[in-house]
Amino acid sequence: MKDYIVIGSGIIGALITRTLSKYQVSVLVIDKENDISSHQTIANSAIIHSGHDPKPGSLKARLCVEGNAMYDTLEHELAIPLLRTGAYVVAHNNFEEQMLQELHQRAKQNGVLGTYFLSGDEARKVEPRLSETITKVLSLPSTKVTFPWEVSIHAISNAIKNGAEFKRNAHVISIKKVEDHFVLHLKDGTTLESKHVINAAGVMSDLIARMIEENPEFEIKPRKGEYFVLDRKAVGLFNHVIYPLPTKAGKGVLIVPQTHGNILLGPTSYEISDREDESTSREGMKYIKEHLKALSNQIPFDMIIRNFAGVRATSTYEDFYIQESKTYKGFYHVAGIDSPGLTAAPAIAKYLVEEVIRIDLPMKPDFDPIHQPIPLFHTLCDVQKQIEIQKHPKHGHLVCKCEKVTEQDIINAIHSPTGNDTIKGIKKRARAGAGLCQGGYCESEVLKIIARETKVKPNEVNYYAKNTPILVKETKTK
Ligand SMILES: Cc1cc2nc3c(=O)[nH]c(=O)nc-3n(C[C@H](O)[C@H](O)[C@H](O)COP(=O)(O)OP(=O)(O)OC[C@H]3O[C@@H](n4cnc5c(N)ncnc54)[C@H](O)[C@@H]3O)c2cc1C
């Protein structure tokens, strides 16, 4: 029996688990997938928004601004990348300039600091590729960019160091309240028991809610967002996040420099019925290209290396829904966490634990907030490289030439406490296959290393989940 089970290992579940691991309680975070953060948290714009856009007075506004500031601490504690880009919101005419003024007022009401205006020409001096039609810009210096799933993986690694546990392939299909605790029934026929449960299941959070309540106060209306990714060679073409003016559908199609040098273009925003439909479409891509014209007509579309889509957990509640269940004490919903959920995540975890659960237990005297990941070889200086290669000669074998990933980097990614044994899991941790060739050259090598390290046959190595092998059968015999 656990004190707390957290359903969902996205950024929300991951940071809640880490926050709970500060206290003298037992915590287990579970996920239906084979890896940490496989949905919204791996498919978003990666922006730590300033808080200029949410409705003043909402939880979204408060927790976005608080979360933005908390990332400065997480950067050091969890060793996560944080690119301090700042952002420009652009206007093209008198009408839009008036809307920009209103947005500025909203930003100030929300407590966003350091904002100022630039003329179109002043902005183009800093960002020369901005469209000539832009007349005015609202600058938001507190906007940053991170590497979202690394935040989750490092948060769960740190929580494990402090006594928490993680269980993957744990798909909750029903929940029962029995006496003073909850019994979670999993798809594989097993059960888990806990005194308290936290529903952090992203686009599935209303389905989890309906497992214990007839009429939850929120329903998820999933909204898809599609993107293009430009190769790392595009680094420096844009140095700020570039936003159009927001609309009811969201923050619009953006230009977003990424922590590893790539540039993201997108997203679209439209409601879908299948909440796990993460496919991309020709129409979506056309829409992005069309809308980017208002931001810049100098985007090198020949540098696109891939596209992807994520599904937002937008809810009918129209704000983050962070509340104890109306039916059962000890069951908490952290639901409807669409944008700016990545930004707000550290503040959401703190708010839940301190203001909703109001945990009244002693902290662990030996809680260690620091996570020290094994650095990737290419990030080391020459002296450190010499030392590491003596200890681990497999750093001498470069597997992914695009992202400079060595065989030892891949071994480390497999065997770390939150390691993974799938091709996609290695890409998430070591970036093998994330570069220009998208794994065309290194994927077969990564597969062989996973097979050897986990002692399975090559055709038993999965792409991302159970039963997703890449190789079907042997075609040649000796
Ligand atoms: C296109 C797009 C762009 C965005 N851009 C930004 C941005 O730039 N900045 C920003 O701040 N926010 C952004 N967001 C929002 C942000 O990504 C999300 O708010 C955040 O990732 C939510 O995390 P989560 O943990 O709630 O959900 P998820 O990451 O989806 O995690 C939920 C987890 O629950 C698991 N789960 C579901 N059902 C079950 C079950 N029955 N049993 C066990 N496990 C289950 C899932 O497998 C999943 O891993 C964007 C979102 C999208 C989709």
Structure explained in plain terms:
InterPro entries: BFD-like_2Fe2S-bd_dom, BFD-like_2Fe2S-bd_dom_sf, FAD-dep_OxRdtase, FAD/NAD-bd_sf, G3P_Oxidase/Oxidoreductase. This is NAD(P)/FAD-dependent oxidoreductase. Residues 398-451 form the BFD-like [2Fe-2S]-binding domain. The protein has 478 residues and is an alpha+beta fold. The chain contains twelve helices and 22 strands. The protein has helices at residues 11-20, 59-77, 94-109, 120-126, 148-161, 205-210, 282-292, 341-356, 382-391, 407-415, 423-430, 443-454; strands spanning 2-7, 27-30, 47-48, 82-83, 87-91, 116-119, 136-140, 144-146, 165-167, 172-178, 181-186, 191-199, 223-230, 241-243, 254-257, 263-266, 270-271, 304-312, 321-324, 331-335, 398-400, 405-406. Strands 1, 2, 9, 10, 11, 12, 19 and 20 form an eight-stranded mixed sheet that branches. Strands 13, 15, 16, 17 and 18 form a five-stranded antiparallel sheet that branches. Strand 21 and strand 22 form a beta hairpin. Helix 1 (11-20) runs parallel beside helix 8 (341-356), helix 2 (59-77) crosses helix 8 and helix 10 (407-415) packs across helix 12. The longest helix is centred in the N-terminal third of the chain and has 19 residues, at 59-77. The chain is globular, with a radius of gyration of 23 Å. It starts with a strand and ends in a 24-residue tail after the last helix. Flavin-adenine dinucleotide binds at residues 7-13, 30-33, 37-41, 43-47, 49, 170-172, 200-202, 204, 208, 225, 267, 310-312, 337-343. Flavin-adenine dinucleotide (FAD) binds next to helix 1, strand 18 and helix 8.
